[in-house]
Amino acid sequence: MCSYQVNVWDVGGQKTIRSFWRNYFENTDALVWVVDSADSLRIEDSRGEIERLLSQDQMAQCTLLVFANKQDVPGALSVQDIQEQLGLTQVASERSWRIHGCSGVHGEGVVDGFAWLVNDVARRIYTQDYHKR
Predict the structure, then answer these.
(1) 132 carries a ligand binding annotation
(2) Strand, coil or helix: 101
(3) 70 annotated to a ligand binding site
(4) What domains does the chain contain, in order, with CATH numbers?
(5) pTM: predicted TM-score of the whole model, two decimal places
(6) Which of 2, 28, 37, 99 is most buried when burial is the number of CB atoms within 10 A of its CB?
(7) Beta-bridge partners for 97
(8) Is 71 annotated as a binding residue?
(9) For the segment 1-60, what is each residue's pLDDT rounded down to a tens digit?
(10) Cβ proximity of 40 and 70 under 8 Å
(11) CA 110, 32, 91 angle in degrees (round to 5)?
(12) At 99, which helix (H) or strand (E)?
């Protein structure tokens, strides 16, 4: 069994701190984006921010994992709806990505999402290292 060390930075999504995000771009292998599935009004803003982030040169190779959080809340948008409204098929077409439904309160889907992310990044990094030889 392989083990990996993962460094995670939770930088928050408030508009007042978004200008600081670029301080974390260098050597970033993955981006985890959390969407509140129960707040349909913020999806468009979220789409714009994902587009801006993924267009940065330093983020060109990073894997994208989108958590569609609050899937346990009645009336929450489905994973498919979130995927379509964020335009992930277009926005993330040049990278490895996945959207994963979850419930942060109950922990459902979180471990599975991070397991996919770690495996995807490890596969990509080790493949790159192999081809450099």
Answers:
(1) no
(2) strand
(3) yes
(4) 15-132 (3.40.50.300)
(5) 0.85
(6) 37
(7) 64
(8) yes
(9) 567 777 676 666 666 666 656 665 677 888 999 999 999 999 988 999 889 888 888 888
(10) no
(11) 125
(12) strand 97-101
